[in-house]
Amino acid sequence: MSLLEMQNCDVFYGKAQALHDVSISVEEGEIVSLIGRNGAGKSTLLKAIMGLNPIASGKRMYDGRDATRLSTEMLGRSGIAYVPEDRRIFATLNVDENLRIATVMGREGAWNLERVYDLFPRLKERMTSRGDTLSGGEQQMLAVGRGLLTNPELLLLDEPTEGLAPLVVEDLIKAMALINAEGVAILLVEQNLKVPLKLAKRQYLIDNGHIRWSGKTEDLLAEREKIEGLISL
Amino acid sequence: MSTIVIGLSMGMLLFLLAAGLTLIFGMLRVINFAHGSLYMLGAYLAFQMVSVTGSFWAGLVAAPIIAAIIGALMERIALRPVYDRDHVYQLLLTFGFILVLDEAVRIIWGLEYKQMYPPELFAGAIEMFGSSVPSYRLFIIGFGAAVSAALFFMLDRSRYGMIIRAASGDPEMVRTLGINVSLVRTGVFSFGAGLAALGGAVAGPLFPIELGMGFNIIIDSFIVVIIGGLGNIRGAVMAALLIGMTRALGYSYAPSWVDFLTFILLIGTLILRPEGLFSRKGRTA
């Protein structure tokens, strides 16, 4: 049984259809990535999973139950955490508050403030700084930390390494591997193959609102050129 | 001296209203025209409690609680369905609240003035620096300062304040953390309604209680909110004291220029610092 299954989902922005008959699944404890160009529908799909975009037709199954009608807050409480592309740090809250707010309704579990500060020591140094004074890398760590503090089973990461310095990217990759090693499944969205090839065992390729290819990472490598052509990376 | 006391007490009263307006605007993006009616309702409720129980303090406690319940109902039943619509609908709706509340007050309490008296403890006057100051005014200043301190403590230090600040900026992201934002909205509206009624109850012994009493003060409260910076509650404190002092000084030295002075402050702010006199960039709640 999969942890999350999106079955034949159609999603619209106004009258324009953004996702066509999209089906993806995430197994417990795995890292899967979703790769596609700008505007391919990656963020739209993540938002649909989180209940932030309505699913016009199709199903969202979570933990073996039909979760199509669950609200965003119920999905959050059921164990899905969302780390958006633009991080969406609470600007008027300081770093510590940005983390603590996730514990208010978060689930019980292995992750607590102390462990998040251990994972990202830089955040501890900046504990009392307001959210809108952080650098891009700090914001990304904070967004991941905030998501972790809800003690999720599934972490949705939207382009976590975008626009970050290579050293920070290395740190984040290590952090993601560590988080996954603790049993948290990760759905990783990226524009290119660089990070997904390092972390994910399975890949989905999306273009123009359609899933064009899905399969194991080694199969992707074997047919890399042909597959990259499919989604014009 | 008495001018300063009158100014400060006026400022505190304005702050109670402006704080509610500011919180509601920050959280719901709704400009609540009915805030003045809730203030009026608070005065009538307090009057009623005082005539039933004989205790001013019972009125001071009961009025905001009843108004908060009414506020919660207003938000749940009427405002919630129109959040996704154009702002005009919300404005019209809060305007509708005015009509309903005013009519309800007229039916229940009639048209004649009601009068409330300060509690015995603060009924007299105190000699300060050679002038006589009504001690009830001093009570308002102390009480207002205590309420604002509690409010800031709640916003800055408590878990509720943290959620309100976060949800004022990015409600969707707060929802992803499992927090029921629509409940927070109801809470904030209800709390704002309670603050307005608290203002009304405190103002009861100062002014005649009448149907139009909400109208005068709501204009000044909106001016306070704009001068303080829309959605900036710290700015609202300073602006409330500024407007309160301006009006008190105006009444003693140039009574016919009072409104003129207030509006000059408003226009000056809008021209020179439209984001509010006391605004720090990016500051909300």
From TrEMBL, chain A:
Keywords noted in UniProt: Amino-acid transport, ATP-binding, Nucleotide-binding, Transport
GO molecular function: ATP binding; ATP hydrolysis activity; branched-chain amino acid transmembrane transporter activity
Gene3D superfamilies the record matches: P-loop containing nucleotide triphosphate hydrolases
Domain ABC transporter: 4-233
InterPro entries associated with the record: AAA+_ATPase (IPR003593), ABC_transporter-like_ATP-bd (IPR003439), ABC_transporter-like_CS (IPR017871), BCAA_Transport_ATP-bd_LivF (IPR052156), P-loop_NTPase (IPR027417)
One GO biological process term: L-amino acid transport
Family: Belongs to the ABC transporter superfamily.
UniProt-listed PANTHER family: HIGH-AFFINITY BRANCHED-CHAIN AMINO ACID TRANSPORT ATP-BINDING PROTEIN LIVF
Protein name per the record: ATP-binding cassette domain-containing protein
Biological source species: Sneathiella litorea
From TrEMBL, chain B:
Primary subcellular site in the record, as a coarse category: membrane
Compartments (UniProt record): Cell membrane
Name under which the protein is recorded: Branched-chain amino acid ABC transporter permease
GO annotation, cellular component aspect: plasma membrane
Listed Pfam families: BPD_transp_2
Family the entry assigns: Belongs to the binding-protein-dependent transport system permease family. LivHM subfamily.
Membrane topology reported for the UniProt record: Multi-pass membrane protein
Transmembrane regions: 6-26, 33-50, 56-79, 91-109, 136-155, 183-207, 260-278
Highest taxon listed in the record's lineage: Bacteria
Signal sequence extent: none
Entry keyword set: Amino-acid transport, Cell membrane, Membrane, Transmembrane, Transmembrane helix, Transport
GO molecular function, one term: transmembrane transporter activity
GO BP annotation list: amino acid transport
